[in-house]
Structure formats: C-alpha cells, structure tokens
Amino acid sequence: MTKVPAQMFSGSEIQAHRGKVPTIAAKAAQYLDDVYADHLAFYNRWGVSKYYGNRRKDYQTRAGRVAALQSLGKPASLADQQVGTACILLAMQCLKQGFAAAGLSTIWDKIHAVLKVDNAFLGTDLQLMLQQLGWKIYYWNPNPSKNDAWDEDDQRLSPPKAGKAWNPVWGGHALRYKSVIDRRVYYETKVDNASALVNFGTAPPAAFKNVPIFIGIAHAGYHVFPGRRGDVIEAHSMRNLDARDNLEVAPFNPLASGGAPRWTRTEKYRSGLIAVPQDF
Length: 280
What we know:
The protein is α+β, with helices and mostly antiparallel strands and 280 residues long. Helices cover 37% and strands 17% of the residues.
C-alpha cells in the first residue's frame, strides 16, 4: 500500500513548483544525458560499466566488485570509480538535480523522505507525489486487445513462487486496463489521461517527443524508467559488470524492435503509467 500522505504539499509549494517546471525538466533531462554519456565513455575505455546494479549482492561490497573486475581481467582500482544504480534510483537522481536547480530542494527532500520509508523506494509512490505537485498521469498500453495473451505470457515466463498467487513482475494487463477504463484508477493511482498513450501499436503519438522529462513505470512499478523527448533512459540493477546495457537509451515504443522500456528474457514490459509535468 502507498505511504504517500494526502495533500502533502502546501499551496505555496505547488505554486513554486509550477513556476519552475521548465527548469526542473531541463536539468533533469540534462542529467540523464550526462550520466549516459559518462557510462558510454567509461565502458568504451574499460569494457565494464561504471554503473553497477545495486541489487546484485556480489556487487554490494568493494571486495565483491574487485573480485568481479579481476575475473574479467580489469584493474581492481576501477571499483573505486564505480557507482551503484537501479531503475528507480536513476529516476530519483535526475529529479533531485532538477529540483535543486530550481531552488526546490526542500520539496524534493519531502518526496525522498516518503520514498525511503522501509527502504521501499516505489515508483508508484514517486508518481503519486509528482501528481500532487501538478504532474499528469497517463496510462500507456500500445495494444489492449493483447492483454489476455500478455497475461498468459507473463505467467508462463515467470511462474509464481510456491504458495503465492501473484508474481510482481506480471503486468496484470487485463486487470489494470479494466480498472483504468471503469474507474480511472491504476493500482492506487488516479489516471488523468487514459487515451493518448493507448492503442498506438508501434507508432507513439508525435507529440510525446515534445515532453521534456517523464517518469514511467511498467507492471505496477516493478520497473521504473525516466526519459526525455520521446526517449527512455533506463538503468538496470541485476546485470553483469561487463554488460554495456546496464544503462541504455531507446525510443519509448514498447512493442517495436529496439524500443523501450527494454525487455529481458522473462520480463516483457507492455503497459503501465507515465507521469509528465504537463499535458502534451
């Protein structure tokens, strides 16, 4: 359940945020670009990623990263330059930079305080708080007619654990879609727009490329993906150090070859929510 308090921002905070949206968006987008450029430069030089997945237990200590680097024939000293990352962490970092540039760090601190409760760091909660500040929540699903087939595919690729009826990686596409259509609610989030990013197949609306910054979730927040100007820039928390795609960029186009959010062998992201600073 969400830990987001109702009406957690004052009227003056909401107004201050509204007036600084262009600054927040520009700085957050620039941060994403800079981190990705840094990732590529480091990888091209060393053949390993500067940004390692912080959910990998074997990478959570310097000794573990040194062992991994040495097994790849890389200098142990690279461990001191490496930085932990994850999908939600990249989204948080870009927004932190944006709010700071706008002189609104106190608002970001309030958001972060809620996210870190119980170390949950939920993308759904992040979107709820952005919505309270005036961001709009769009439901995305490129082809709802495939919902039932996608649900079957999710369950085949990632069966539930023993004694469990649900696997968090599942999209619950049919269930979520019905809730959005019937009640304008996805999981615990009120949906502001249930049409603009629906039924687009492999041709997202051109106007989406004008969105300066966005924060997306797939499968009720199992995956979080920030992006800007139509492109997703996402981080992954479980890949190997020598994976070039620990960070990757691709157009928001979930069903297209090479589109994003990117799929794995068992995780196929095919519907969710996207938060944007204003309607497009």
